[in-house]
Amino acid sequence: MRYLPLTADDRQQMLGVIGAKSIDDLFIDVPEAARIKHTFDLPPHQGELEVERALSAMAAKNTSAGSVPFFVGCGAYKHHVPASVDHLIQRSEFLTSYTPYQPEISQGTLQYLFEFQTQVALLTGMDVANASMYDGSTACGEAVQMAHRVTRRNKALLSGNLHPHYRAVIETSARFAGDGVVALDAAPTSAEDIAGRIDDDTSCVVVQYPDFFGNVRDLTDIAAAAHAQGALMIVAIPEIISMGALKTPGEMGADIVVAEGQSIGNALNFGGPYVGLFATRQKYVRQMPGRLAGETVDADGKRGYVLTLSTREQHIRREKATSNICTNSGLCCLAFTIHLALLGEKGFTRLAALNHESAIKLADALSAVPGADVLTPAFFNEFTVRTPKPAAQVIEALAEKGVLGGVPASRLMPDDKSVSDLIIVAATEVNTDADRAAYAAALTEVLS
Amino acid sequence: MSSKTTFTGHRGLDHEEQLIFERGREGACGVDLPEPDGVASRLGGLERKGAVGLPGLSEPEVVRHFVRMSQKNYAIDAGFYPLGSCTMKHNPRLNEKMARLPGFADVHPLQPQSTVPGALELMHELARWLMELTGMPAVAMSPKAGAHGELCGIMAMRAALEARGEAATRTRILVPESAHGTNPATAAACGFTVDAIPATDEGRVDLAAFEAKLGPDVAGIMLTNPNTCGLFERDIRKIADAVHEAGGYFYCDGANFNAIVGRVKPGDLGVDAMHINLHKTFSTPHGGGGPGAGPVVFSDALAPFAPLPYVVSDAKGLRLVEDDASSDATPFGRMVAFHGQMGMFVRALSYMMSHGSDGLRQVAEDAVLNANYVLETLKSEMTASFEGPCMHEALFDDRFLKGTGIETLDFAKAMIDEGYHPMTVYFPLVVHGAMLIEPTETESKETLDEFIGCMLDLAKAAKAGDTQRFKNAPELTPRRRLDETTAARNPVLRWTPPAPAQAAE
After folding, report:
1. pLDDT surpassing 60 at residue B270
2. Of B53, B78, B132, the CB nearest to A40
3. Which of A57, A251, A313, B430 is most exposed, with the fewest beta carbons within 10 Å of its own?
4. Contacting residues of B for A341, CB less than 8 Å apart
């Protein structure tokens, strides 16, 4: 057992020092009936080679995104991550360190968290950001809870074009919150319709940007309508690279911006771990959930960093804490910080432009396929296609031809029959002309 | 520290490192991306106007920046981390290698299920290990951290109460004083009122106080076992039976599962829900504060309410159930967008398979043996808070420092100068000036003996009046004690560009 250093001799000696006859003496407080005597229905230990063999065999059964023309999005995106990102996050001093509660020996972690917070604030056009959340969807759920605390109002108005899973996460936490937070049943989609439903019990409006179907729309009017009624506007951004090309939610009047940061520095990982981004206005800082790194000085007057404003947190405030969250996505936000540092201003805006062009080219290629209809006039790197056949069948047929062609909207909105013929398609910088041609050709065959 | 000053501010290998925003130049870039073709944009007139404000640096500059920062961190690969309740153990690199296989790392959560049978198999297999080790019939895989798992368990309790028509009347959750701060925060986030149960002089739940609090308005209890004093709750069966008899549910905080894995099945203790911190018991790395993963095991009573999504195995093979309509059960909802922390699942299963059923039992035995060895050997100079054997962590308090003017925090900071990460201090709250030491099973007797020697030397120095050693500590670190009060009073949470110099009039 290569991970366990104690030898049989060590164990005997240590038991002797303790004054115990056997290890069982140390489990004396466990009720006799609960002490396991039998063996478990699990295999015995295996060497490194055997474990590698077994897990590699499992992995080999999956079709990896990099092995096929790949166009799947809806909140997670395939991008190229530079080799140095993964190398750096695997450095022992980052990978195997603990939460930086002892700042004198954690300045590395604390400084990158401070840099991460700055990057997120800049990208979203907001004043401040926290040191990350579990992912975009849970950040969105927390944002609604925060709006409830800030406004002391009960109703969250959710745009119909919000990611259905984000909606579900909000509804779950609202349903159990117990103090009246409710997510409205209505799912308005137009700016006028959203604005018209805000009333004096509305704590917040939650809109997605670009929206679930890929549409890019100005949110200024919604923000104005929300503010006129004393409500907050929460903007959710599942594809953060869009911020290299688009006007920021901050400029459009957002009060809280949440985003999925997976696109920068992090792999697809079948859904996690990801990195939730959370930014807000300075005046709401003390209502913000999650961990925060702050600048200060040490006993010699040198600049340094610490975790701060912990009086909002569960380990101090217990049942009065702003949330029960007690962690962040440390290593994932490190990957984000490194990748964005590598990109810099020029790389980030260029990456966004390449994503947008890739999507335009794909939209044009798919528009030319008989029967396919691109529905999204303005988009970033994701758009919606209507097909004459049920979308789920089309996607399966494409997969059989070796093309992963997007997400059938019905997978996420099974109750809504009106979307059964819609495919949500994402393109990124990793797609080549050959990938796009392969998609168009395969779709032509599937629809013919 | 040597008082020699340098021209650069660097001290040998210890470089001062500016913020990334204070470096670089416009136009520099650390990645090579092709020039866009210049296709007319379709952004609906919402093009970004101004610059983002990011610095431009080359790849070697960025690499050096982060390598230098890494060198300012303590880490388990660099030294012993005796952090009680946090469980800092060896992180095998095999786990990292497995998690990076393209078949796991490079698959999308929404690509067709037919293209990811291996990913579903991995989730199913990990679930099987967790259910077998805990003796529980169901598991929710999606919670993304321990505290998120608590939320999942309490939501399932609430859903079950709703199904019984008692959600409106059962509004109180009992939480022992020694519980993690997340426990009361979780109960409150689910709309329950929190009622604290005091601890006995033996560091365990006061059974009489607990029984006195039971009533028709009690939804359940949240208990940590082994508890945060490092002790096994001897009366756990009685507690479980009493709470069930009163119509409530029993949530167990499973953060300390590595003390009993392979030796005790929580299912035999009457638990209804328990989260498992994969990073603690199953070695996925802490990563400077995350990500974690907190799958929750459920009893038969709560299993039907487990959240979406989940993997089922039927005649057609493995399948992911993602919505209510295709579920045979009554899931309480969805907690995350996708399927949970797949990257952590791979690492945890890799660790479990490496240990096997035999090795996991040894994990608990060695974790408990190491902690008791530390407890026994430090007792002579430090004050143990409670009598009797401990589980995987040993609790001391500040009584041995009485009259020295040295506080627990000073003692902890002095450990840093000796090359150790401090133990957990001031927690649990039930003892004054707490010092909670958890060696874990991956430390050798040699390492423990060196550590014990250091702790005894420090304790003796404190009692001998060597106060400056403690009050000035740490002195040998890249930064000395940091001013946390000012940081909180006047929070500076981001870098802001310096104001442009005023043009001379």
Report:
1. yes
2. B132
3. A57
4. 20, 30, 54-55, 57, 62, 65-66
